[in-house]
Amino acid sequence: EIISVIPTDRTPPAPPLLTTIDSLTSGSDTGLLVSWQSSISNDVTAYQVYRSTTPGRLGDKILKTDDATITSARDTTVVAGVPYYYSVTAIDASGNESATTVSIGTFGNTAPFLTPPSNGS
Predict the structure, then answer these.
(1) What pTM was computed for the model?
(2) Buried b (16+ CB within 10 A) or exposed e, 24-60
(3) Which of 13, 21, 60, 86 has a Cα-to-Cα distance from 4 of 20 to 30 A?
(4) In sequence order, which residues have a C-beta less than 8 Å from that of residue 110 and are 6 or more positions away?
(5) 3-state secondary structure the chain
(6) Which residue from 17, 9, 1, 51 is spatially nearest to 31, judged by alpha carbons?
(7) How far apart are CA 39 and CA 71, in angstroms?
(8) How far apart are the C-alpha atoms of 41 and 82, rounded to whole Å?
(9) Whole-number pLDDT of residue 111
(10) What local confidence, expressed as pLDDT, does residue 63 receive?
């Protein structure tokens, strides 16, 4: 009797490193630009960005990149005066998701919070 076994990748990739969060203020393009360093894993196909208004909480998925070469995302749905906490994860070819980015707090940012631009107010 011959048994065929197909190995399954269940190992998540290494997490990316959240590097900066900058304000976008040019023209009508306001919000925050979240940037990260790529995961060191070689099978990453996408990144997932999460946003929360509560420190230590992962929050909601706000963006999934189309490919692993993208290392920043614009969040133009922020509200002035509200603190935001971001996390980024890597997703590999088998759909495994990494741990969240290594940063201050359980899931927070390299900066404890960021307030978006006031849109001229």
Answers:
(1) 0.77
(2) beeeeebbbebbbebbebeebebbbbbbbeeeeeebe
(3) 13
(4) 18, 19, 20, 21, 103, 104
(5) CCCCCCCCCCCCCCCCEEEEEEEEEECCEEEEEEEEECCCCCCEEEEEEEEECCCCCCCEEEEECCCCCCCEEEECCCCCCCCEEEEEEEEECCCCECCCCCCCCCCCCCCCCECCCCCCC
(6) 51
(7) 10
(8) 34
(9) 44
(10) 93
The token duo for 66 is 């189309």
Tokens representing residue 74 in the block = 């614009």
* CA 99 – CA 58 distance, rounded (Å): 11
Q: Which residues pair with 31 in a beta bridge?
A: 24
The single-letter code of the amino acid at 35 is S
Under 8 Å between Cβ of 46 and 68: yes
Calculate the average pLDDT of the chain: 81
